[in-house]
Amino acid sequence: MALPHILSSPPSSTSLSPSFKPKPPLSPAFASNLRRCKLTSFRCSSSSFSEKHHNANPPKPDDIVELPLFPLPLVLFPGAILPLQIFEFRYRIMMHTLLESDLRFGVVYSDAVSGSAAEVGCVGEVVKHERLVDDRFFLICKGQERFRVANLVRTKPYLVGEVTWLEDRPSGEENLDALASEVEVLMKEVIRLSNRLNGKAEKEVQDLRRNQFPTPFSFFVGSTFEGAPREQQALLELEDTAARLKRERETLRNTLNYLTAASAVKDVFPSSS
């Protein structure tokens, strides 16, 4: 079930799903953000009043709860940090309601071209907020569980959906640690070559994985693929850690090939850089 068009963009039949498999190299500019998730402030495009969704007990996949939804032109991953500024009146009302409940809402990617929102999103939990003098809010949110929108409860004044929770399935005989280590090596090479192309010192890249288990590490990797939100959405929707890591490995390999070629051109034609 695709969410309704909620932006001013013209309608389109484009849908976002795990079957979307673009594999071009990522922009070289993204590499400088691999050590951390770059924080970019976005304005909210839609939301809703909060339903109580207490975090005392971890949600189960079969649980169905109501959740206010934020369609935004970005993909939030579990563990990632997202700053938001709330300034429109209806969203300020929403924030007052959230601050009296459990501070959780659903972030769903909204395609800038079609204006349609994805079915799979990630819970954003407000970990810090500041109310400004004009009643605007500045928020720092952290990605939590993934969810799938099962049904829209209402669309006005804000989107509210019934959601079910997503968890990765067991990856069978796959060696997830080996896959994660391979992805980390590729990330380090991408950073090194990107620094070289940008005239920065080629110093050794520090530990990127930071003792994370393969699943949260795969989400971290996906969060660094800035500038490719459809690919990020496809990664978010995958319910298999091995499949997510393999897809990220392929994207990083393509990016590394691109940067290697660009570096070779720079060596032969220094003035072209």
Provide structural commentary.
With about 270 residues, the protein is an alpha+beta fold. The chain has helices at about 90-100, 175-195, 215-225, 230-235, 240-270; strands at about 40-45, 65-70, 80-85, 105-110, 115-130, 135-155, 160-165. The chain has 5 helices and 7 strands; from the N terminus they run βββαββββαααα. A 5-stranded mixed barrel has the order 2-4-5-6-7. It is globular. The model is unreliable at about 5-25 and about 30-55 (pLDDT under 50).
Q: Indicate the low-confidence ranges by residue numbers.
A: 4-24, 31-56
Q: Name the assembly state.
A: single chain
Largest sheet, described in full? 5 strands, mixed, barrel
User: Which range does the strand content fall in?
Assistant: 15-25%
Distance between the termini: 47 Å
Task: Fill in the keyword field for this structure.
273 residues; 29% helix; 5-stranded mixed beta barrel; 23% strand; alpha+beta
What's the gist of this structure?
The protein has 273 residues and is an alpha+beta fold.
How is the topology of this model organized?
Layout: E1 42-43, E2 64-72, E3 81-86, H1 89-99, E4 104-110, E5 117-131, E6 137-154, E7 160-166, H2 176-197, H3 214-223, H4 229-237, H5 241-268
Parallel strand pairs: 1-3, 2-4
Antiparallel strand pairs: 2-7, 3-6, 4-5, 5-6, 6-7
Helix pairs in contact: 2-3, 2-5, 3-5
